[in-house]
Design brief:
The protein is α/β, with parallel strands linked by helices. The chain has helices at 2-15, 39-52, 71-85, 100-112, 146-156, 176-188, 202-215, 231-241, 247-253, 260-280, 295-303, 309-317, and strands spanning 28-33, 59-62, 89-94, 117-121, 160-165, 193-196, 221-222, 224-225, 285-289. The chain has a nine-stranded parallel beta sheet with strand order 7-6-5-4-3-2-1-9-8, with helices on one face.
């Protein structure tokens, strides 16, 4: 009997409308990039920015390395995106290894160059390898946490500020409730939205949203989407931020190490299905961690119904 029921369920699934059919594209998106280390990486980044720009994202953001290690490159990348791509660009800014005066100087430079959006983060301490590792230690003359950073930036200028949220709880938090306390402090300090760390289960986001509702937190909390092509790399990222990598993901990528095209297809399918389930649950805003590649994020947006606005304008005028 159970086998018959399973066959009926699969038959219904197969006969349903295609998962991505007729979506109206009524979503808003943003994209995250990291500053390039050399000329080749800069060319690759700019290819990604150019390809994604016609989707008219709400904004694009540029990360800030552990310990402020990419400060100048972040600044240069943000400035170029605003100047040459004409896109709203948000600069990441952290509390790590910088005094309040140094942070204010960086923020003032951004404001002078037309940057009006900051992604304010506590940040991670760099290890000897340059990657996040050691416990966070505030600078003696700096901000102790992201909530203080938000308040300081808002006192300096009326920046739009985004902060981080953790559906599966930040590793440094004592418990899920104290993590929510921290998010609430950041929003109360003046942040206008939160962007979540990546996750791979729609239920993780929906449970988190329910907890926010019970708290009375009404600010937008945008899901962060990471299309994964390298599970081992994603596992390293996840270990630093408390995200769970489901066991079935390893199985889907098994045997594809030497098949990059197939790996791309699997990655896009996994991330697109996650976004589709979030969409079914009412989500209309998505933030994509691009890893400086456009193809996967573009494909997912396309499957969700987005089309380049330049192309749409041409069709309207024809």
């Amino acid at each position: 009997m159970s086998q018959t029921l399973e066959q009926m369920r699969e038959a219904r699934t197969a006969l349903d409308d295609p998962l991505f059919a007729s979506l109206p594209g009524d979503i808003d998106v943003s994209f995250e990039f990291f500053p390039p280390k050399n000329a080749k990486m800069e060319a690759s980044l700019w290819d990604a920015v150019t390809e994604l720009a016609p989707l008219r994202p709400d904004f694009v953001s540029v990360t800030y390395g552990a310990g402020g290690s990419t400060r100048e490159r972040t600044h240069a990348t943000v400035s170029r995106i605003i100047r040459e791509a004409g896109l709203p660009a948000a600069a990441h800014l952290t509390c790590v290894d910088a005094s309040k005066g140094e942070i204010h100087e960086v923020a003032q430079q951004y404001w002078s160059e037309g940057v009006r959006h900051i992604v304010a983060l506590r940040g991670d301490m760099p290890s000897e390898s340059g990657a996040p590792g050691a416990p966070f230690t505030p600078h003696p003359d700096g901000y102790r946490n992201a909530a203080e950073l938000v308040a300081g930036l808002k006192a300096l200028h009326d920046f739009e500020i985004s902060v981080a949220a953790y559906p599966e709880t930040h590793p440094d938090a004592d418990c899920p409730e104290s993590d929510l306390d921290n998010l609430e402090r950041k929003l109360d300090a003046g942040a206008s939205r939160a962007i979540t760390q990546f996750f791979f289960s729609p239920e993780a986001y929906f449970r988190f949203r329910d907890r926010l509702d019970r708290r009375g937190i009404t600010a937008p909390v945008v899901p962060g989407i990471l299309p994964v092509t390298n599970v081992a790399q994603a596992r390293k990222f996840a270990g630093a931020c408390g995200a769970m990598i489901p066991g079935w993901m390893d199985g889907l990528f098994e045997g594809l190490d030497s098949r990059p095209a197939s790996r791309q297809l699997v990655a896009a399918t996994i991330a697109a299905e996650l976004c589709r389930r979030l969409y079914a649950g009412g989500v209309r805003d998505f933030h994509f961690y691009t890893l400086n590649r456009a193809d996967l994020s573009y494909a997912i947006c396309h499957m969700l119904g987005m089309r380049p606005q330049d192309d749409a304008a041409k069709e309207d005028n024809s």
